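Good morning,

Attaching, inline, the backbone tokens for the sequence recovery test we're adding to the shared suite. The designed sequence is right after.
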């Protein structure tokens, strides 16, 4: 994969795979750490999920994804319009990027789960906003990996 086309992050989470999976695929739990109001929502492959963003400064936006795959305790993925933050712009005609979460058990005696997220497809985003979307989402994934780690560390 071209490095300008994808963002990849990994985080070691000191909890069982089942807990990481629940944090990713229970829509309400996902919303809690990701910063989107998803109360009463469910993630279903092939269906859209929408909710109001709760992250400070972005509360005027709606988070809108098309759930791509749910392969229990292995892969969860969705498509979205990256950094679609101008409420006056209709992004619906643009290509989307694919966000793919993958889980892997750690073999070491301490256990835990390796979570990897890859967002790909930036080369299809219109040139005038591609670099900004890539940079902002790159920073965003740094923060989101920290958010899920903090969420899962809570009792």
């Amino acid at each position: 994969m071209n490095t300008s086309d994808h963002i990849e992050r990994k985080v070691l989470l000191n909890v069982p795979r089942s807990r990481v999976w629940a944090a990713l695929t229970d829509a309400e739990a996902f919303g809690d750490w990701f910063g989107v109001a998803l109360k009463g929502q469910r993630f279903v492959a092939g269906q859209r999920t929408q909710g109001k963003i709760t992250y400070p400064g972005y509360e005027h936006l709606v988070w809108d994804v098309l759930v791509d795959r749910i392969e229990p305790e292995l892969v969860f993925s969705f498509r979205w319009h990256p950094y679609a933050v101008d409420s006056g712009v209709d992004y619906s005609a643009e290509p989307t990027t694919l966000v793919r979460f993958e889980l892997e058990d750690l073999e070491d005696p301490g256990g835990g789960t390796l979570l990897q997220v890859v967002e790909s497809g930036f080369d299809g985003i219109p040139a005038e906003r591609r670099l900004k979307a890539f940079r902002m989402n790159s920073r965003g994934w740094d923060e989101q990996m920290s958010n899920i780690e903090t969420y899962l560390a809570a009792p």
